[in-house]
Design goal:
Elements (H helix, E strand, L loop, with lengths): L5 E5 L3 H11 L3 E5 L3 H10 L1 E2 L3 E5 L5 E3 L2 H5 L4 E4 L3 H11 L9 E3 L12 H8 L5 E5 L4 H5 L4 E7 L2 H11 L4 E6 L2 H24 L3 H21 L10 H12 L4 H10 L4 H7 L5 H16 L4 H10 L5 H9 L12
Helix pairs in contact: 4-5, 8-9, 8-10, 8-11, 8-13, 8-14, 9-10, 13-14, 14-15
Amino acid sequence: MTRQVQVAVLGAGSWGTTVASLTAANAATTLWARRAELAEEIDEQHVNSAYLPDMKLHPTLRATSSLEDTVLPADVLVVGVPSHGFRATLEEAAKFVRPWIPVVSLSKGMERGTGLRMTQVIDSVLPGHPTGVLAGPNLAREVLQGYAAAAVIAMADEHVACSLQKLFSSKVFRVYTSTDVVGCEIGGVLKNVIAIAAGMAEGLGVGDNTRAMVITRGLAEITRLGVAMGADVRTFAGLTGLGDLMATCMSPLSRNRTVGEKLAHGKTIEEITAEMNMVAEGVKSCHVVLELAERYGVDMPIVREVDAVVNGGNRPTDAYRGLLRIAPTSEIHGVA
């Protein structure tokens, strides 16, 4: 008789909790929460009132604030910690991680200072482990509500991706596989920055034509950088490219779009982040992405304008004036 697969999920934010609830239907799952009171609430009441109020979690999901109890028995480690705390949490957990088990990132950010993607951080902290990413157009609340959705599990080894596929799947949550880890990961990072631009457009009331322009030209920027980094161009027409970008730019549930709207309404980035209880990764990623674009020689005017607002003190109206000053070239310049 074979032992049931044990899944450990680190990070009890909205998406980490949602993924843990999904895997709990398919495998024994333990969710790690930094705060003991939150872990107790999830473990005993099967709710996460801090990040997912009024949503019921899978009844078999367990939770704890002990990293050792979460990680030591795990056959699969899923890391849903925001990018700014990703390395520190992983280093703390590393002494409990069993050899060779796959490690999957849920984070859609990049590490400040190094410019590393989260799978690269995993490789540096836990060398020798199969690493990958679960990404796609997934708004946590809608997934928990049972609306049909889809994601991609991307691992360099297709056999590992296929073995993990069923862990995350349900009747209404479809999981596809990919070996393009770079493309799937970079699409999730960059769409957050473009979503801030889309939110600024919404807040300024510039119209649907302008919003559509920002989203599609944003996709072109994502694709240019991704291809320069070695990604498959086809990835960006899929769930982790266009799909994730559309969901994040269009939905009022999107944290990054909300940041853009509030910037357009005159709030400072400090005021916005202070009143949010969840991380908007685009705020932390935009300057790192800009540095990465410069390293690869890729022009990203939308990212540049977002960074100027978030980190440079410019106003959203300045950003849109800046974009209008850019002379158009071929629509597929730098992509084909």
